[in-house]
Amino acid sequence: MNLLDGKKCADSLIAGIAKQVARHVDFGLRKPHMTVVLVGNHAPSESYVKSKVTTCTLSGFESNLIRLPETVTEKELLWLIQQINADASTDGVIVQLPLPKQINAQRVINAIAPEKDIDGFHPTNFGRMALGQKAFRPATAYGICKLLQFYQVPVAGKHCVVIGRSNIVGKPISIMLSNDFDIGNATVTLTHIETPRELLLDETRRADIVIVAVGIPGFVTPDMVKDGVTLIDVGINRLENGKLVGDVDFAAVAPKCEWITPVPGGVGRMTVAALMINTLMAYQNNFELA
Ligand code: NAD
Q: Would you identify the family this protein belongs to, as annotated (predicted)?
């Protein structure tokens, strides 16, 4: 069993980004700038946002965090997005999800200028990504690709099963790994809550790579995978005892795996690193440096 160490990979990517930024700054340009919008006091969101802001500093970026109250209206949030879109001093913006019930998240995502959409959730970027064109790729899915690439895990020609079809993880990773990208060319099966259990097991038991993003602790058990599988655990679940776990019964499944991601220290770190790659790309696009 080998660990796909997201921290090690992310640290290496961020060091490379910081070097590129230093070169641009030496050349007389301003630093890349990320704007983060946080609505309310959702505890996990607070921690994700903190990690993004800290990683901006490590990457040589500037950042600002805009906090809005839980009671903010959709209209007010959309107005703020318009201001950020028009602000030439910021290269990328993220609106931390989830948003309170009175706000339609998709309408907010759609309002972000595609050239500042470093999360890669805007229909323009998602569509371009699906078509294999240059785009900001959804950060968690992109982070998974970068992790597989870093450890030179074979993907092309492999059978990959994705469990979960969310717009932010399952759907984009299934498209990206099946695309003819730098990391891709796999044969991908996308499964979800309506997939009959027997069919799910048929698929996962013969998969070379299983990617799980369901949000259920211990969902993947040893009987579901074959020996030598590569297992990517996207889940982040907080147990009652405070412990953070993924969607895989790690202790039981890890001995069967060729490669496996830990939680924490796996995909979560890579999501933030991928956001930094996207922000650098937005900045380089602005200055036509790409
Ligand atoms: P979601 O929570 O929006 O949806 C869950 C998905 O799981 C759905 O598509 C559903 O069809 C599928 N599902 C549920 N039960 C299933 C079953 N029995 N069989 C097959 N499929 C089933 O998905 P999400 O937003 O991708 O989040 C999933 C998990 O990933 C959560 O724990 C979340 O916190 C975590 N997450 C982690 C990161 C990261 O950076 N590591 C990023 C995003 C989400």
A: Belongs to the tetrahydrofolate dehydrogenase/cyclohydrolase family.
